[in-house]
Amino acid sequence: MNFVPHRFMADLADTDMELRRRLVSALGREAILDTPDDLLAYACDALVDAPPPVVVVLPRSAADVAMTVRIAASFERSITARGAATGMTGGAVAVPGGILLSTVRMNHILEIDPAHRRARVQPGVVTLDLTYAAAPYGLFFAPDPASERICTIGGNFATNAAGPHAFAYGATAEQVLAIEYVDASGDIRQSNLDDGGIDVCSILAGSEGTLGIVTCLDVRLRKAPESICIGVASFPDLESAIEASTAIRERCTAVVALELLDELALMAIAATSTSPYPRNAKAVLLIEFAGLLEDTRESEDRAEALVRRYAADSWVSTHTVAEAQRLWSGRHDVRKALSRISPDLMVCDLAVPRSRLVQAVRAIAAIAKQHRLRCSTVGHLGDGGLHPILLYDRTDIDENAAVESASNEMLEAMLTLGGGAGEYGIGFTKREIVYQQRDATDRAALHRLHHALDPQQRFNPEKLLPPRELEHA
Amino acid sequence: MIAHDTLDPFEELVTKGWVRPPESQRPAFPPSGRTLRPNSLAALVEIVRRANHAGFPFFFVGGGTRLSNHPLPVAPQLHGQPTIAIALDGLNRVLEFRPMDFTVTVEAGIPLAQLREQLAMRGQTLMLDSPHAQQGTIGGLLASGYAGPRRRSLGYTRDALLGAQLVLADGSLVESGGRVQRQASGYNLGRVMVGAHGCLGAYATLHLRTVPLPETHRCIVATLPEGTRSRVLASIEALPVEPTAALLIDGFMREIPGWEGPDGRVFLAFEGSETSIARATRDLRTALGAIGVSETRLFDRDAEALLEGVINAPVPLHHNHGDNTATIRLWGPPSKAVALRNTVHRQLGEVNLKAETITDLHNGDVYARVKAFGPRALDIAAREIFVELAHEATRASLLGAPASFHDRFTIAVNRERSSESLVPTLRSHFDPRSLYAIDRSLL
Questions:
Q1: pLDDT digits over B409-429, tens only?
Q2: Bridge partners, B163 (sequence order)
Q3: Please, what are the domains in chain B?
Q4: Residues 245-274, chain A: which have Cβ within 8 Å of B?
């Protein structure tokens, strides 16, 4: 998929060299990448290809970021901040002539405060690394998007990423209690939720780097549960699995994850290795309970009774760590398994009200069928998150077009059902569909906020919202 | 611009019955001014539009629980017109409750307690703390950004907000955020307005996240013998079952039951399954017994009411302790909370005033109440100490005090808040005519 920006600043080449010189002079040679090969490596996210940035900046500190923003302003260039670029909507690629700022070197866990259940981290810290660092204190960081082994907390904050446990513990926005950020003037600002007044954390969360660049975050840590239990139930169809998940969500107090795998995903997993799931199942529900041992046992018993009531073909559960990891492994590796039966995958990220889950999976299947695409649907049923995964061959022009159309139609279908885009971001590719769902007054209000914080559209332009001049055209 | 003395822009709305008469038992805001109570969303929008057109400064009132003890919001530019209070307590309906989705849509003027009752019928609740939940509205709670003692366990007030319909200063009605549990990218204007005290717009309707109602609540109050405090606090931190609130209490005997020990009392709230609470009680009693704390009282049936009482205790609904009582809330890191509490007692003790304190062990807040034998004695002895204490904390606010405290306190303590610089910028975009009269704490 290609990112075709609205603004193409063709006459910028004359000043590119001067811009690079200024950045090298201010931040040091080691902080700047400007060879064609290096720039090409930053010309895409996990799905979207884009023109390379004019320069890549690798700051180490908030002061470096602030300096970059000031230099960018003096050259009238935009800045796109980027974590690990695991997004799939073009949110982390620069516009032509723009600067790409990677937080890869801002990757330090600055402090873990066990008494306060907080950690202070730089935005480039890999998400799972924080949980590893907090583990000796009996704590963990709750957000666990599928890419947690490589994605960064700054990127999670920018897209408000979630993961399987979000319905129990909240998404990234709910974990961030204080931030340091660089504003459009190049000033370093702090905001702490406990200071009262306007909560800047909430303003910047999910803004995909369009309102400021976060340079430090204070995040919540949670006490690790005494006991974890994993249950796996197989069902004759997706609908039964979804209905069982609703009953479990309402009646099992210790439930913290409710993951759905469909038949195609199960077949792919079974084809690649020793599947932890029953053969020939049409749908599997993977359930995690966490808390005191008494609570997880009670929820486990209740869940078993409930899945049987909803026609489950089988049920297994475990309290051992090794077996729990084995049962999770299929879910964690579903993309890897599908990629072995298809040259390319397009992972969509959608959200619907839980009560519309059955309609949503039917709509997804119908759209895939209409476009003659194979589609596997996995999801986070706790809060209505769905990931349809379209199987295709990107060298096939027709399939490419079909995948793009199908993914857009799926998003539109979810919007009709009262849902929308999920945690992979809106970026460039989903921008128009999401934006068009808002009426003119709502759009104007969003632009007011954007204009208030980034009057020159310096930060990650053309993402989330169309450029303002288009709105008034 | 319509001159106030020649034409009342709201008269037509009153005649049409869009505006309810003020309730007699509720105070008017401002006391000598005009309070308008829209009875529908359309009426609210129309009132704001007309106020905007006529150039009347205005502010929004929820249940009035905060304004009872605080100076009224002020209009930065008075426009030569009287300030109007728009009371939203008439907008108090549950519009849509979807138990299966764990979401509810309400009008912003609904009191938290009223909503909790309706949600409880389907086994759900909102994990929000609010002082005076019977009267305080959810819109007001969000606008104030109140953070209660359960926030470390259950999250902050903002976390419950999925989306909202907002009325901006020009009367435009804006929908922002979403209605689904899973919220992702995009600007959520509803959350932008959390803690803004209505200076950017008013909440009209709210889309909120609900959670399953805990099976059981239990509060435990333990009396602390001399020399046990520090060991008790360490043992609470080590409990396998975390309390949702953990407070060290000195005084407040009238509002909070339990005998006061030489080292005060600890108050713990637990929520969860019956088995987990039984385990928590057993573990706690074992730990405290080993330290020498033998007296613990359990509250089950009335546990929720007791927790509410503890939240209410330092936040007087009206300044009804007489003019010789003042209460302050101090914020700080949890690791320094007990030290801050000790400073409160020492400094007030030096001028022969006895402080009553509630120290939030999870979050670091210290509530301090002091009573003198007369208003002048209070003014002389405590006012300057409050100002000093406020400077020792990371943040401070007065919860109830004579007017003289407010003037001195505001000037002395109103140092720059981290988000302060954004307020004028945002206001210039969301309220370009500066019509919202704003809370003094934001000035």
A1: 665 554 555 667 788 899 999
A2: B177, B207
A3: 11-90 (3.30.43.10), 94-212 (3.30.465.10), 216-312 (3.30.70.260), 325-413 (3.30.70.600)
A4: 246, 249-250, 253-254
